[in-house]
Amino acid sequence: MWVASFEERPRLTPASLLPSSNTLTPYLDLGCLSARRLYYEMNNLYRRLKGGQSRPPTSLHGQLVMREYFYVAANLNENFDRAKGNSMCMPVPWKSVDELSMERVTSATTGFPWIDAILKQLVSEGWIHGICKHALISFITHGQLFYSWEEAANLLERYSLEGDICTNNGIAMLLSGSCYSRALPSVVHSPVLSGKHGSLGVELIRRYIPSLKSFPEEFIFEPWLAPYDIQLATGCVVAKDYPAPMIIHHQASLSANISMLHQLIRSAQERKVTKRRQKQALRPSPYLMPAPSTDT
Length: 296
Prior knowledge:
This protein is an all-alpha fold and 296 residues long. The chain has helices spanning 2-5, 25-29, 35-50, 60-76, 99-106, 113-125, 130-143, 149-159, 165-175, 193-196, 202-208, 228-234, 250-282. α4 (60-76) packs across α9, α6 crosses α11 and α7 runs antiparallel to α8. The longest helix has 33 residues, at 250-282. It is globular and about 105 Å long. The model has no long low-confidence stretch (mean pLDDT 82).
């Protein structure tokens, strides 16, 4: 019945962000469950319980097809695991990676509790929820640091139990806004606001960042805004017991990065239109009548 009712994305609760035994992806990626068998078993269930109806992309069929799509794309593109020479990717001028900044990311000391909790969960559990994956990839790519999606894919490859080179690179390209969808550059998860929505990230932060366990919910996503007396009372002083944020004006960075990506998309579209018009100009028109013969 759970498979048959999976037609819309389940409503998220704080408990949704914690590991669940219902997660199928690790079993698929590690070869414990055949994707082919899962597909046909779902077909049988849909046929028996719902008359064969399934509504991708939110149905389980849609989720499985997206996974298999990344495998097909990877096999047709020899540069699927890198930005350079990748015909599927928009040529984004990503920043050069600063090793100290990436060290703060991998050690979960970015100073943003929502992002740090996600990183600690990924390292300790080998799994993060899709919304957490989106927040993490956004932070590393067009959301804040503006590093290539390759850095995000490498991080998932190193720690995630539910991904491989095809799905990790595919999802990193997708969520970085550099491939597949023109709308995605605008879909950026703030390192503060996305966790605040519905208090989703409060339990995750308290669970994976012990120094913030007693912090009031009002300031737990932005501890640097808490008055000093509150920081002292909770035993967590920012820049002493918990790191200060590695990016000060994170909202300004987010807006600037999105504007740059949209400009790149517009430029790419203009080049495509120009090339199409040039080809059309060189192609003889089928409506031109041949010149009359001068032979008598």
